[in-house]
Write a structure and sequence with these properties.
The chain has 188 residues and is α+β, with helices and mostly antiparallel strands. The protein has one domain: Nucleoside Triphosphate Pyrophosphohydrolase (Alpha-Beta Complex).
């Protein structure tokens, strides 16, 4: 299914998702380059809400740019398979090898603001991420590795502690809390 159609078919969980879905579709209709970083203002990213088999912990990385514990994810960079992007980024950022996809459908969507920062010795202006989140599962026994150019830590965090670990107030209160609420209602 085409990315735009996936977003159109997505049933929002709350007001934030409803509004963000509308804006994502508007940007897709306005710009023809939202799948690449050539659009320096707004582009697609994908993240994984990565849980253990018991769904009691989330795998997170200490993101160097955000200076906070965060979900793994990254830029689409031209790919239309955003679930594949989320899996690729998870493997790159954590070193895990085996990923179980718990649903082929998006688990969440959100528009995220990224402050200006330096990456690879170049300044990147503030911009917007149109982020799609996928529910993924990884065995806690997998060997974890830091990706030094992006993060300085990788660890499993109990669901009830995720909000305490993040330094990003808006993400913590509006996104991570929502993802945990949705996970509790999710049946497999």
């Amino acid at each position: 299914m085409e990315l735009k159609q996936q977003i159109e078919n997505y049933r929002p969980y709350n007001e934030q998702e409803e509004k963000d879905k509308q804006i994502m579709l508007k940007y897709m209709n306005t710009f023809d380059d939202v799948l690449t970083r050539k659009n320096e203002f707004v582009h697609f990213t994908a993240s994984g809400w990565v849980v253990n088999k018991e769904k009691t912990k989330v795998l997170m990385v200490y993101h160097n740019i955000y200076n906070s514990w965060a979900w793994p994810g990254g830029h689409a960079d031209g790919e239309t398979d955003l679930q594949g992007t989320a899996i690729r980024e998870l493997k790159e950022e954590t070193g895990v090898k085996n990923v179980n996809v718990l649903s082929d459908e998006m688990f969440s969507l959100e528009i995220l603001c990224v402050n200006g920062h330096v990456k690879k010795e170049n300044y990147v202006s503030s911009h917007i991420h149109l982020n799609l989140t996928y529910l993924l599962e990884v065995d806690e026994k997998e060997v974890l590795q830091i990706k030094e150019d992006e993060n300085s830590g990788v660890k499993w965090i109990p669901l009830e502690e995720v909000e305490k670990e993040s330094n990003e107030e808006w993400i913590r209160e509006n996104i991570y809390r929502k993802l945990n609420e949705k996970l509790k209602k999710y049946e497999i």
